[in-house]
Amino acid sequence: MDKILAGDNKGNLTQSFGGLRVIDFSTTIAGPHCTRMLADMGAEVIKIETTEGETMRTRPPLRNNCSTAFGQLNVGKNSMVLDLKSPAGVEAVRRLIATADVLVENFRPGVMRRLKLDYAAIRDINPRLIFCSISGYGQTGPSAELPAYAPVIHAASGYEMAHLAYQPGRSRPDYCGIYHADVLTGVYAFGAISAALYQRSVSGQGQHIDVSMLESMLSLTLNEVQWSQFEVKATQRPMFGPSETTDGYVMVAIASEKTFQSLMQVIGHAEWITDPRFARYSDRRENWASLMDGVEAWSRSVTTAQCLAALNEYGVPSSAYRTVREALADPQIAHRGALAEVQDDGGTFKVMNLPFRMSGAKVAAAPRMSTLGEHTLSYLKEIGLSGDEIARFTDNATARE
Fold first, then answer.
1. Is residue 5 part of a domain?
2. What is the pTM of this model?
């Protein structure tokens, strides 16, 4: 049977991963973010769920019991309900795996092995399969089987304490509801899968990919990884932070000599360009607090709009501190087509498209969300189950609800 495509892909000139089949066992954010990227680029993604559905289906905001958070992570995927604790469910998965190009899972290490669906158990079924495992600490090692979610990894990686170091006068780490570790790890997994697919085009062989959330988060602390190895004198004031205006705050980034010189013109201190305290980058670091106090003395005399107008005129990188709602209303977002409208049983909502465009391929979210189990029967037929077998399969699944 022809592979079943999620959404309406007619009219797409090209999709980079068109024709690829992905089996998606992942839940919550990291794995689903990765497989959503694959779906946006044309892959057929089969999301395997239990009869209750993934827990993210209850994450607010909800309309008619449909979660838009779940939708943002899973639009464009086909939904198949299977009981992986039953021999029939595992056998159905094994048959699907034989037809797949990629498998993504983010269970705690050991779960797939207990289900007899780990890479060692299924590689002979499909030697070309790219099998991607996402976990908190990696598949092996002393911490491998520890439970982990993004906030735990934020703490374990040092990220939160590194962030705290940029908050003068504070000693308690932040509360963080923005799941950097999940999104970042999902992107790393996507990149690794893409590389493995290219390698397979040469070798003809699949492989196992092991992605660690801990290591992903450590990669964000670029400066801190180096500072932890060598003694570096800290600046008196963080390099980048808010400068107050009469009605808000702006971010000003001094990242080059040209930027520094232009900013001095804006704030009316052109003489500081040759001031021994600031003339060289090393001197500026030593006297950063004095420099930024001077910048803020100027910014406090003007409105945010006036501040940004002056900085933009001189090409100084800057922005107001905006809410996400305000950022989404930026005309640049509309110009780029960064938001896509999606439909589910609760109505319509908008999701972010992937943040890149390709001249030779369409990269976009599918227009609708699959309902739970919508494609189960189609895939059971494809893998060769008879009508009676499908009836028994679905009756058993219903009985377990």
1. no
2. 0.92
